[in-house]
Model the fold of this input.
Amino acid sequence: GLNASPGAATGAAVFDADRADDLGSKGQAVVLVRPETTPDDVHGMLASKGILTARGGATSHAAVVARGLGLPCVAGCEAIRVDEGKRLLSVDGKVVKENEPISVDGSTGEVFAGVIPTTTPDLSKEKELQALLSWADEIRRLEVWANADYPRDAMRARSFGAQGIGLCRTEHMFMETERLPIVQRMILANSVEERKAALKELLPFQRKDFVGILKAMDGLPVVIRLIDPPLHEFLPSHDELLVEVTKLEAKSPRSPKLRKLREMLHAVESMREMNPMLGLRGCRLSIVMPEIVEMQTRAIMEAACQCKKRGVEVHVKIMIPLVAHINELKFIRDRLEPVAQEVMNRKHVEVDYKFGTMIEIPRAALTADEVATEAEFFSFGTNDLTQTAFGYSRDDAEGKFLLRFVEDKILPENPFQTLD
Done:
């Protein structure tokens, strides 16, 4: 497969996130094996030693999250067939069943049957490496910032020498087990009032996470991205729901569970899009449902004020994603600035904060001078920018034809792994 996230891991093959979470939390070493991962799988990824997927590329969900968590990952291993129902994978006539050991090398993209001994590196003992990096520090002009979605990520990043958090993806915080039902209630709300009630329950969770991240990065900048993915990613799979509803209709047509499942299926169907990566997500979702990002901004600013009162030096940057037109950014910023000011006035604290955007749509790149009149900082989202500039689906192209293009010299490099 693709060497999607470096490092090596060995453990029992596990084929669903809930089981990985259960076994991993009990101290068992597991490798999560999935056809491909989604935000629903994050809790299982957190409990695993490594990740293996049959589909996806170097910028797939599995690869990006694994790199952020420091987990080895082999993605797009298209030779394997993952059977979730029977809980096994097969390749070239060989079968690995659940709980049988496998090993993955995320640096080479290799997958092995059985256990291979591993060692845990201790960077504090790598004196020659530290010396080499210190010489590089003397002449480099760039800073290295990290991705961190949880306080533990931020602490690890700082211990490795990161000089800031370049991207904190707030939606990953929504996938925690105790939060997901509240998020789903927010999505399925029939009125703005119902949605706000669910968001009020979510706010303390978000605030607590932001407090932990800002404390860990005391004195360093933290870029926090407001919600980006489409809402259907927080709901059960449409196809799995359809199967479950069909089975219950045949077995127990009057079951109370069936009514709830039908309601969920109807909601998921109403949110289905032909191309969700280009659909209702990012700033578009924030314009349609501003209550979500208002809650997130309030949680960020309350956390920043709380940290500053405790002596933490705070530099927070709030990112509005997927902007294509200056008016989108202006519309959202005009809604969020009063929220930030209200929190600081109420807490009697002034914190250093900025509103900016991620340039990940070609139109935003081409009109960046206009966008800059409303944005106080830019980040460049190279995954979506590459996807929309080339017209390549980042989740499909690498597994289907992109590596062939590189081998045949049609493209000099994989555009998802280099800057064009």
In short: The chain has 16 helices and 16 strands. The mean pLDDT is 92. The longest strand covers residues 352-359. The two ends are 24 Å apart (CA to CA).
